[in-house]
Amino acid sequence: MRAAEAALAGAREDRIRREAALSAADQQCRAVAGRIGERLDMTPEQLREVAGVVEAERPDLDELQRRLDRLSRERDAMGPVNLRAEQEVAELEERMTAMRAEKDDLVQAIAKLRGAIAELNREGRERLLASFEQVDQHFRDLFVHLFGGGRAHLALTESADPLEAGLEIMASPPGKRLQQLSLLSGGEQALTALALIFAVFLINPAPICVLDEVDAPLDDANVDRFCTLVEKIAGSTGTRFLIVTHHRMTMARMDRLYGVTMAERGVSQLVSVDLAQAEAIRENTVLA
Predict the structure, then answer these.
(1) CA–CA gap between residue 200 and residue 135 (Å, rounded)
(2) Angle at CA 32, nearest 5°, toward 62 and 45?
(3) Total structural domains within the chain
(4) For the chain, what is the total number of helices (H) and then of strands (E)?
């Protein structure tokens, strides 16, 4: 009986110690749970799920400590917490939405512009080829008229696309083989250039045309052909030609002459002579 009472007393003391240890452990658990809630804003059960710890197994404390240290370093490497992150994200999303809308508008504008460029190129090729054929035909006819024979034509070179091609002038004066413009003599080049200029001019004649010293490199025979061509074009198109020249044959073939004379030293005076009227007066005088 004494032994049983002693054992009972020992059991009671052991129970009291265990209850005290249990109470201390419970307080410690509550303190740990409080720190978890303050630091991580979650319960111990939620922390266990996040950490992947199974309740029936005892976790490896060293492994958990290493993992905690690694995660802490990664968190510190991320820098301080940006309290305006959510607002900045909203602003960035708004800007990205606006930029996407602008991008779509630009893509549509580019597609529309490319379509317009393709249409302009197509129409430009058609008009250029049509004008080229007309200019080439006029050039062939005028070349024969100015040279009194021979043949010439225009050719597109370097590219099949007329918008990117170059232009080559091929000419064959009477008695010479067909060759490039640069291989002709000075007078032949001048006549060929005149044929090309008038060929372009005949596509859309202007009311007034000014020619400055175009007959300077020509001999008398070619000047006569040039004046005949000018008269023909003036009669067919109604264009008034204003020719600046010093050649006597050209001046003799014009309807009206304008010049500057110095009647007195240092005094210039503009003089005009109506050759057509002068010829009419002469004919009337002869008939009288």
Answers:
(1) 6
(2) 80
(3) 1
(4) 8, 7
CA–CA dist 171, 177 (Å, integer): 8
Domain housing 43:
24-76
Distance CA 271, CA 282 (A): 20
In this structure, is residue 283 part of a structural domain? Answer: no
What is the β-pairing status of strands 208-212 and 240-244? parallel
**Measured distance CA(145)–CA(137) in Å, rounded:** 13
Place of tokens 């080229």: 132
pLDDT for 55 equals: 65
CA atoms within 13 A on the CB side of 130: 7
Each residue's pLDDT tens digit, 65-101: 888 788 888 878 877 777 788 888 999 999 999 999 9
- CA–CA separation, 137 vs 152, rounded Å? 10
- Where do we find the tokens 């050039």? 139
The pTM of this model reads 0.58
- Residue 97, judged by CB atoms within 10 A of its CB (0-12, 13-18, 19+), counts as exposed
- DSSP-derived secondary structure for 30-65: HHHHHHHHHHHSS-HHHHHHHHT--TTS---HHHHH
User: pLDDT-derived band of residue 62, with 50, 70 and 90 as boundaries?
Assistant: confident
Assess contact for 250 and 215: CB atoms under 8 A: yes
Decide if 123 is inside a domain: no
